[in-house]
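*** Residues and shapes ***
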Amino acid sequence: MDAMARRSLETRFRVLADEMARPMLYRLARGVGADITAATKRDELVDAVARVAPSLLRRAFATSIADSDLRALCRRLGYSDRGSAAKLATRLMDALEQPTARISRWRPFAEARAFARELGLTGQKAWRAFVQGRLAEKGSLPADIPASPWFVYRGKGWIDWGDFLGTGNPARHLIAYRPFAKARSYAQALGLANATEWRAFCRRREGNRRVLPPDIPSAPDRVYEGKGWVGYGDWLGTGRLHASKIEYRSYKDARAFVRSLGIRTEPEWQAYCRGEIHAASPRPIDVPSNPHRTYRHAGWVSWGEFLGTGSVALYARTFRPYKAARAYVRSQGLVDSKDWRAWCRAGKRPADIPGAPDVVYQGKGWTSWGDFFGTRNVHPGRMRWKTVREAMPIVRALGIRTRSEFLRAKRAGRIPRGIQTTIERRPDWIDWPHFLGTR
């Protein structure tokens, strides 16, 4: 055997050795007469066996390793496990001596990488999900591709996950980021408006590759801290500053500016800050969008005071006692909730009388709207209706002879409120002649 063939055999045996447990390697080394002990390391065992002559290795395979181990090794490599130990040994040696024969249960690195790239996975996390069967649409992991390719293929072509999956993303600890000034120039050329748009851009992908170049960080505030980083306004070229770095104008000056806009409510102010109203007068950078926080200890009273409307939040108001409020409302001649709503919309309700008295005065004297208005009307759901037996003498005393007369009398108010218009739906009802006494 020439030197080249000998080196090829040795290299291929080292690949085969990856499929063999240490006890099997130890027995094989003893079989070829290597000078070893029980403490000899695995790599030294491989070296000792790889350098022996093919004939000696063939005999050691047949005589030093148990038949069951030989059969298991052949099955792992995809070969037949039938026959005697000598035939199994010959089968393994033939595989070692043929450059195209398979000597590992795993596909060659290039083929495994091609398979992984076809999956279109975005990173190591997605690979783990695929291996665990959580990406059903991608199929399942073939038996001849390792779940831990970085371990199996180290020294055999493995570079990193970006190369294996085809994303082009190098390992983070291997990245050499662009200098801050050049990275900022790239970011400013994108025309993004804020940090939210920047993060959305960083998540964009074409296939399984990120649009963001690998040498520009998605978290520039961490990578360039102390190396030129100021804020996203500087990074994106918008000129905006973080709230902690803005010197706001005084509360009185901010209040005067806001009142000049004619904004009446907090929702209007928020719409203005979003640029939806008063577009001709955008919010100055030194006027905070959250004045109730910025000026909390610097003059802030309420939104009504800030906007100049004088309105006070419901929780901060002091209302009249229930009886005093009820007396005032009764003096207005209101009869139902419809009148009440119209009266409130007309601006006639005093500020110290709540628009929702049933909520404010709950547990403080409130019983019903009928009591509040003085009409004594009771909600139908709370009315105690008379039974048919109780209503019959009252209706018969009125001389009513037909159902139509009963309904007209009900609409005219001749029949007391405790008698239902739909009294025939009550469970003790018989018929109208019985009820009216006309049978």
About this structure: The chain has six domains: 3-97, 109-172, 175-243, 246-315, 318-380, 384-436. The mean pLDDT is 86. The first strand starts at residue 205 and ends at 206.
